[in-house]
Task: inverse folding
């Protein structure tokens, strides 16, 4: 770490999907090589989608805040692509029938509910940067904490793959007609998922972490491709810049990264872009894994939920295989396939990319005892 | 802490409660130019034009602010935008397309725009901004929060220049207030450390626009976030 940087820690992680109730459940299913869980929103309408949104967020934030923290000194960042899409659909339909005249506050309302419920006294805001939302939210929390302006921030990433979202991705022909197969030769699209994830971000020297072994956020970066509204830069220039920025901030060489947990949506262009970015930076045997074959693309929640799975990976020193990968494309890369891989893991790279050409990358490390 | 951080220039347009006329400060060779971002994006994407009134307005302002800024300086420039309405109007357009034939004709072009980050991303594409892009929603303090966060990123040395402010598109039926005519409102500032834009004059120093928690506690209905941003920044008369 650079001298002027304060080590930042992630602790009290929690996550759930519409199928799996906890982070450990998700990780165990991922390890076991379970096939794709149907995490696509199975609700029957916008009211149920709105209820699912609240349930997922309550579960994740409630679990995270069980740990001892002073909410009065805690901030909140709610990261999501669009907020409560069920409520949004209801509002639009009512407005178009002339029944609504006031502006909805779909993201802020949820943030205010969490704030009121837990009596959070620090700054509260929502962040939306497409599918990088919650990884950007984590990075924003780290940026704020390291300046000392706020001691602890609760970061929550959430999204429900409701009817509006599903129809949109179907209109873009981005949904797989079969299953989600990241980095596979036969990959043919993504699978949507609904999830929420939460964690606390604070300084690593925080007294509350004295007897803990938190995961450290050593480096991070956010970049834009500035190329296309929905497709990634074919050469992966934006993602390459984000990874390089995160490595530089962490003051590590690319060889010091043991595992990359990639975005891996299983769309033809995204996975090829990620492969191009990896080739440009890593020349060593970097283990690559991805989880969307199991839980689907959880949109704005994906960056944080997958970062917290990387946290679990570091604690268990085990890399789960890419769910859905049978015949790897990009034969020069080292994908974890079939069985979990036990090995010494010191650092994990987590990336996310999204519509608008947004990219985010973080370098995670398990704090060593006595450090 | 913020003594050496300045607003180099700013531009604003308010169709909702103002006249819709452009207001700006310290614009070099001030010229009423309306960038056609749809054309810009179209040229790069080779897809049909899918823009919006908000994108057109924001692009016109960004063009004024960035016209003489080098490609190199734009490469790492941050984009920090507050928004109250997000992509609400585009969401409505897409939802209407879903209602046609039970969603069989849900418009892919409309869906691409259904994110609060869509218009900022279009600015990033049109002007080659490749630094961090963050879109904030915090009720009445959305715009001020975005500017405050851009200053923090500059202070910590993560970036040296940022385009920061807010943008919103209010349709007629949600505009509120007596005029109730609807429209777009955008305010963008080019913010950076003194000297980072060599040879360029700056228009005002940013002293202290408040701590995050203070900004967060600014009261007021969220429709007033534009006015709160103007009041909170050293813009002079507007």
Result:
């Amino acid at each position: 770490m650079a001298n002027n940087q304060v080590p930042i820690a992630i602790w009290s992680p929690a996550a759930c999907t519409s199928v799996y109730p906890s982070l450990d459940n998700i990780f165990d299913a991922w390890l076991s090589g379970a096939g794709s869980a149907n995490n696509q929103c199975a609700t029957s309408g916008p009211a149920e989608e709105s209820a699912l949104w609240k349930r997922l967020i309550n579960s994740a934030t409630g679990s995270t805040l069980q740990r001892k923290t002073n909410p009065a000194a805690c901030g909140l960042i709610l990261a999501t692509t669009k907020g409560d899409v069920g409520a949004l659909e209801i509002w639009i339909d009512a407005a178009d029938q002339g029944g609504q005249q006031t502006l909805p506050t779909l993201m802020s309302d949820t943030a205010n509910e969490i704030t009121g419920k837990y009596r959070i006294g620090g700054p509260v805001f929502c962040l939306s940067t497409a599918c990088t939302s919650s990884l950007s939210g984590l990075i924003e929390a780290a940026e704020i904490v390291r300046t000392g302006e706020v001691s602890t921030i609760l970061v929550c990433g959430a999204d429900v793959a409701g009817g509006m979202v599903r129809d949109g991705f179907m209109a873009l022909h981005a949904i797989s007609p079969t299953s989600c197969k990241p980095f596979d030769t036969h990959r043919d699209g993504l699978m949507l998922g609904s999830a929420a994830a939460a964690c606390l971000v604070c300084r690593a020297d925080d007294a509350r972490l004295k007897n803990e072994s938190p995961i450290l956020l050593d480096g991070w970066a956010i970049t834009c491709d500035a190329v296309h509204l929905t497709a990634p830069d074919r050469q992966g220039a934006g993602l390459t810049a984000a990874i390089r920025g995160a490595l530089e901030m962490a003051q590590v060489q690319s060889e010091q990264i043991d595992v990359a947990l990639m975005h891996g949506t299983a769309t033809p262009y995204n996975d090829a872009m990620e492969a191009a970015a990896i080739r440009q930076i890593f020349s060593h045997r970097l283990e690559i894994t991805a989880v969307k074959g199991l839980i689907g693309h959880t949109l704005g929640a994906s960056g944080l939920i997958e970062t917290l799975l990387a946290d679990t990976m570091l604690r268990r020193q085990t890399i789960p295989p890419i769910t859905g990968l049978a015949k790897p494309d990009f034969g020069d890369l080292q994908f974890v396939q079939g069985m979990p891989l036990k090995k010494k893991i010191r650092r994990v790279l987590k990336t996310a990319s999204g519509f608008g050409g947004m990219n985010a990358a973080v370098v995670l490390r398990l704090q060593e005892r006595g450090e | 802490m913020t003594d050496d951080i300045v607003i180099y220039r700013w531009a604003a347009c308010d169709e909702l409660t103002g006249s819709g006329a452009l207001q700006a400060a310290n614009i070099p060779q001030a010229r009423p130019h309306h960038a056609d971002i749809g054309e810009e994006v179209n040229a790069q994407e080779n897809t049909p034009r899918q823009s919006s009134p908000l994108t057109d307005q924001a692009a016109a302002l960004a063009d004024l602010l960035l016209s003489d800024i080098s490609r190199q300086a734009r490469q790492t420039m941050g984009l920090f935008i507050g928004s109250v309405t997000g992509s609400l109007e585009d969401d409505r357009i897409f939802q209407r397309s879903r209602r046609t034939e039970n969603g069989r004709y849900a418009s892919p072009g409309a869906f691409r725009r259904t994110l609060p980050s869509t218009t900022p991303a279009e600015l990033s594409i049109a002007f080659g901004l490749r630094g961090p892009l963050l879109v904030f929603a915090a009720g009445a303090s959305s715009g001020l929060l975005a500017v405050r966060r851009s200053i923090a990123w500059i202070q910590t040395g993560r970036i040296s220049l940022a385009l920061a402010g807010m943008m919103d598109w209010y349709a007629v039926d949600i505009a509120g207030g007596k005029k109730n005519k609807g429209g777009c409102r955008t305010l963008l500032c080019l913010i950076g450390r003194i000297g980072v834009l060599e040879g360029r004059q700056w228009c005002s120093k940013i002293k202290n626009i408040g701590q995050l928690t203070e900004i967060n506690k600014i009261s007021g209905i969220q429709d007033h976030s534009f006015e709160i941003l103007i009041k909170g920044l050293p813009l002079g008369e507007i």
